[in-house]
Amino acid sequence: TSAQCGFIGLGNMGGFMANNLLASGTSVAAFDLSQASLDAVASAGGVPVTSVADLKDCETIITMLPSSPHVEETVGTLLDAGWKGKLFIDSSTIDPITSKSLAGKLQSSGIGAIDAPVSGGVKGAEAGTLTFMVGGSSSDLEAARPHLEVMGANVIHCGDNGAGQSTKLCNNLAMGIQMVGVVEAINMGTKLGLDAKTLASVMNTSTSRCWSSENYNPFPGVCENVPASRDYNNGFGVSLMLKDLKLATHAAGSVRSPTPLGNLTKEIYAMCEDQGMGEKDFGVVIDFLNQKK
Ligand code: NAD
């Protein structure tokens, strides 16, 4: 098919992102391994295809896949299929070094490439308010911008290829560590007899304030409409946080940047996953500390 955009990876994030492209009037052909997501994109007006190679006539291809190996394989398949498009946009969170090397391969085939991982979660994907952290040339970014602005509210140029991924990993490294810190404090406070809401309101007007304390508090009932207040369901899963911490500590290791707390936090999330909490929101680490499943 010769749709303007080929979209690969219609999961929790990609499904909504493809819908927003379609709603803006962009023609979209899409591929995923899951038939259910192909059916969903078809009912939103997209063209489902049965292989990556079927997208070889698309001008732009966007990927929203789980991790590095999936994106590597997809780029290999596209190039083998003779894709001669203009622009490759990878919005998955992957290893920055892999991202940079894939961009190099695409560029040597005459195709522009940017890494454009996102923050904003599934809610942001649905509402079209994602933040894109972009690595690549200004001209490739400008070519991508009309698509990115349909799927997101903020587009930030972070540097050359790979810089978007590096930025995303720095953010999530700090976020993972901060969550565990907030959990330890609020768990201790409530055990000392404090009221969780009062404690949070003091923290949030004091020096320990952060996103996990203020907007996404891990103690049930402190914030409304967050995973902690619905048994840690439908949030940012432990397995995804673990994936990002593995990528972050690996990237840090490659430049000999020490991440002692990152490593410890990664181990904590690995233990949560081993205890069957992989699908639960990453605030569930409070239950892990209390050995409450
Ligand atoms: P997901 O697991 O829901 O979706 C991934 C999709 O890719 C699935 O539909 C799967 O069937 C498909 N897929 C896997 N291998 C494939 C292949 N070889 N070819 C075609 N399709 C394939 O994941 P998600 O939550 O949508 O996340 C996607 C990416 O975005 C990840 O890199 C994640 O780290 C990142 N991210 C997620 C969130 C979030 O809150 N979920 C937030 C920011 C960034």
From TrEMBL:
Q: Which residues form the active site?
A: K168
Q: Which residues form the 6-phosphogluconate dehydrogenase NADP-binding domain?
A: 5-159
User: Which keywords appear in this protein's UniProt record, sorted alphabetically?
Assistant: Branched-chain amino acid catabolism, NAD, Oxidoreductase
Q: What is its EC number?
A: 1.1.1.31
One of this protein's Pfam families, by short name? NAD_binding_2
Reaction(s) catalysed (UniProt annotation): 3-hydroxy-2-methylpropanoate + NAD(+) = 2-methyl-3-oxopropanoate + NADH + H(+)
Q: Which GO terms describe its biological process?
A: L-valine catabolic process
Which pathway does the UniProt entry assign to this protein? Amino-acid degradation; L-valine degradation
Which residue windows are coiled coil?
Answer: none
**Molecular function terms from GO:** 3-hydroxyisobutyrate dehydrogenase activity; NAD binding; NADP binding
> What residues does the 3-hydroxyisobutyrate dehydrogenase-like NAD-binding domain cover?
162-287
Question: Which family, according to the similarity comment?
Answer: Belongs to the HIBADH-related family. 3-hydroxyisobutyrate dehydrogenase subfamily.
Q: What is this protein called?
A: 3-hydroxyisobutyrate dehydrogenase
Species whose genome carries this gene = Triparma columacea
